[in-house]
Amino acid sequence: MLKIKQYYQVLFIASLFCFSQTGMAAQFQDFDNLEVHYIALPSTFLQPDIAKKYNIKRSQYNGLINISVLDKRNNNKSLSASLSGSGKNLLGQSEALKFQEIKEGDSIYYIADYPFLNEEIVNFNIIIKTSNKTNVLKFQHKFYIE
Question: Where is the signal peptide (predicted)?
């Protein structure tokens, strides 16, 4: 039983980087010596036990943002960071993102949930603070209800 749970945990983390709403590729942005990977997807993509473990509300109206900060100078090793930010829809309604840090072995991930409506386009503005620099990640995502 323990091996099955470990399998799902690894699958959860890996899936957040492998799949997006529109295809099979995660997105990333370079910032000097950092590579920041990000993805947005519906929370229903997660298995119920994984969502429960990380206190993520599974709902057809709840999205999940996942971000990983990698150090390009150190073989893309995961870095600890402080993340904050918001999502704003095209009507100008803004929702603050509350990130939680997840550590799985040598990997560090930051996840936050975001409520959405069907076919809602959201502009994300995320501040990433590492030990020596602050960067701003901006991206847009269109959410769909399954």
Answer: 1-25
